[in-house]
Structure formats: structure tokens, C-alpha cells
Amino acid sequence: MQVFVTGATGFVGSFVVSDLISAGHEVVGLSRSDAGAEALVRAGAKVFRSDVNDLDRLRNAAEAADGIIHTAFNHDASDLKQHSENDRKVIATLGAALAGTDRPLIIASGTGLVQSATGQPVRETDAHATSAVFPRAASEEAADALIDQGGNIMVMRLPQVHDTRRQGRIRWHIQIAREQGRVAYVGEGRNRVPAVHVSDAARLFRRALEKGEAGARYHAVAEEGVTLREIAEVIGARLRLPVESITPEEAPDYYGWLAQLATLDLPASGALTQQQLDWVPTGPDLLTDLRETDHDAT
């Protein structure tokens, strides 16, 4: 299968490219830079030079593919709403290129867009928030529109994706701790984040491409919830900084823009995904990777 991958030189996307090639697929990766193009060639992929927001060229690449995995997204928090609306347009363009066919399109999203009202881990069948509440939900709304049109569309909700180099939003916890000279968690620190090793996430994207069901939401979740207190204790040990509890009222002064996220409980289940796609995560857990991370380089 010839697979077009956006975000092909990013953290998750680069692992997806390698996994697809190892499984015998032909990969065309999107890159806007010389360095990214060279990395794709070294990995054994073909290169499509463009920016993901150049919609005319994006459609040309999509029309030539047997399947698409869309992992590209601008995570700059300073203008998340605009980046999310840009992604809505990108997804609509990719879907239009595949309209009237059964060629699959897998769209990366996040488990944090689905919040539990009961405290139980959110499931694949739970509805996502609206973009009016969380701008990032524009991606899932765009997927909904394509599903309603009969497209072979799947959504891959990602938790904290990690290895010993990167850990999603946890890198901000590390940077804040270094700036503050201490590591804090809110209250008892029982609020949780789900997690998956990047190699397991990449393998799941491929399994969805090969045997996923149109309209499905999948959760790339290996650990349903790692507590913020556990994470803080590991960061504190690695940075040799004191670890302490703070009140919700103190959170904005410590966390800044991250304060709201730092107080949310966001557990997620991947049980249905593991059953439906015969996916068994095997990578290291989040705390293991945190203990082995070079925090001076984070």
C-alpha cells in the first residue's frame, strides 16, 4: 500500500513512517524542509515537498495515495484556535481527495478531548468536546463531517506519547520545575494522565490502516492513568529538587498557562482498541522513560 503521511518528520510521524516501511508499505512523507526530506530518504520513504497548509498541493499528494495517516498539527499554544481551524481545513481537503473511494484516512486527535463525568477512564465510544470548549476538537468535528459523507475515516486519539527523549506535555512540567526551583502537584496529586510509548502508538496507526473499521475512534492508550504526584516525584528525583503539594489557588502562579491542565483528571481506556485491533502495547511505561530521560536536555 502506498501511504501518504503528514507530520512525517515529527515525533510520532517519524516512528509511523519507520513502522510502515518495516511492514512492507511504500511511504510518501510530507516535508517542508531540506533536513526533513533528508531524514525521510534515510528512513526509506519518498518525499513530497510542501507545507501541510498548501491545500492544493496537499490534495494532489492525497489523491495519489492508497491510504493517509494525518499526524501533522501545530501545537503552539499561543494561537491554538487558529491552528485547530487550519487543521479542520486540512482534514476536509484530505477527505475530499478520497471521496467516493474506500481508501482510509486516519486522523490524529487526543484523549484529552473526551472528559469523564464519572471519574472513570474515558472510552473510545465516548463523545468528544466541541471546538467551542476545546479548539483542538475542530479536528474531530472535521472527521465527523467526513464520516457523515460516507468516508473511510478513523480517529486515533493519542495520550501522552513518550520515549526517553520526549514526553508530550510533561516536558513543560520539567521546564517549569527547573524555573521554579521546586516540583509541585495540586492537592493530593491524584489527577491522572494516560500514556503510551511512541513505538506502540506507531504500530497502532499501522494496524488501524490495515484492519480498522470506518468511523471508528481508537485510543492509543497503554496506561490508563499515571498520577501527577508520581510524575512530580520522578522529576524531583532527577532534577534534585524538592517536591511539594500546592493548592488549586496557587496553581496559576506556579504553572502559568499550564495551570488548568495540571488540575484536570484525564484517565482514558484503550481496552476496546486493544481488543478490536489485536494491539498489545509492549514499550516501557511513562515513569520508566522519565527516569531515563536526560532532563538537562529537556
Give a quick set of tags describing it.
2 domains, 12 helices, alpha/beta, Rossmann fold, single chain, 298 residues, three-stranded mixed beta sheet, seven-stranded parallel beta sheet, 12 strands
What does this structure look like?
By secondary structure, this protein is α/β, with parallel strands linked by helices. It has two domains: 2-162 and 196-221 and 268-276, 3-Layer(aba) Sandwich (Rossmann fold), CATH 3.40.50.720; 170-193 and 225-267 and 283-297. Helix content is 40%, strand content 19%. The chain contains twelve helices and twelve strands. It has helices at residues 11-22, 34-43, 55-63, 80-98, 138-148, 170-180, 198-211, 228-239, 251-255, 259-263, 271-276, 286-291, and strands at 2-6, 26-31, 46-49, 67-70, 105-110, 153-158, 160-162, 183-186, 192-197, 217-219, 223-227, 243-246. Helix 2 (34-43) links the parallel strand 2 and strand 3. The longest helix has 19 residues, at 80-98. The model has no long low-confidence stretch (mean pLDDT 96).
Structure summary:
Helix content is 40%, strand content 19%. It has 298 residues and is α/β, with parallel strands linked by helices. The strands form 3 sheets. A 7-stranded parallel sheet has the order 3-2-1-4-5-6-10, sandwiched between helices. Strands 7-9-11 form a 3-stranded mixed sheet. Strands 8-12 form a two-stranded parallel ribbon.
